[in-house]
């Protein structure tokens, strides 16, 4: 079968030097495994980290791809709930399932956790014609959700759902700030907040602001401006006037980090929450602790989520309340172009998919 493989890391982000299409053996299922024909797979930034070999030296030779959706073509003898012909999507959080953290519902904190298609291998990920996963790491796709939408949603929708619902526990009527709303997680963050009856301010570069509003954001702000946070503060003041509430943001959905972090803290009202995953502009952020202890701010970290949360989020997608925003679809032969677009972010809005 055909697979997108690299045998070496890149030191200059020239993906053309390492990405190759190769023929590898088709997988045979272990007793607890499901084998499925990949219809679509979705790009994530950990694909870039993998090719760099930083911050983690991933196994070589390597097949990336954490988010893959397809049709089941074989099952192991111990598989109970998945059958040949089922439409499934990957749940890429691979945990031991038996430790105290896993059995208490915190499988994303498992000490033995690995991200499928990033930390697994050699030659075990979603960028191939046929792939395999343990039964517990696949989820059935609802009938009225497409393979494309499911592949785009697998990690990104799960991450956004866990951030806002699992960790921040958003409530109707809250004012939610979604940083980087044009990204995959940002797209879903806007929609989840609106699903829960929140007022949403979203940020992006100036050329993408109208798209945020079309997606459901109530306000859109250019976060590349030096004083972007002042514009958001003014919006928050106008919103609370009719209700006599104190000004400020209730929940900030954060995955940018870097120089934006401390400005975000200034926007939170007393007792508010900021939930963060990743740090695309830098992890070494400056923090003015006065914003935290004076206002009793909650700072929550978040990574991925549970299989149950993915099923819950896909249910709402099946009800038409959440949709995947697909930026573009590439073939394996166009993989260099696809990954370069994700790296630069130029003109990118939503998820990039690859089709074998």
TrEMBL record:
Residues 17-354 form the Enoyl reductase (ER) domain. Gene3D superfamilies: Medium-chain alcohol dehydrogenases, catalytic domain, NAD(P)-binding Rossmann-like Domain. GO terms for molecular function: oxidoreductase activity. Pfam families: ADH_N (PF08240), ADH_zinc_N (PF00107). Coiled coil: none annotated. It comes from the Archaea. Keywords: NADP. The keyword Nucleus does not apply. SUPFAM superfamilies: GroES-like (SSF50129), NAD(P)-binding Rossmann-fold domains (SSF51735). This is Alcohol dehydrogenase zinc-binding domain protein.
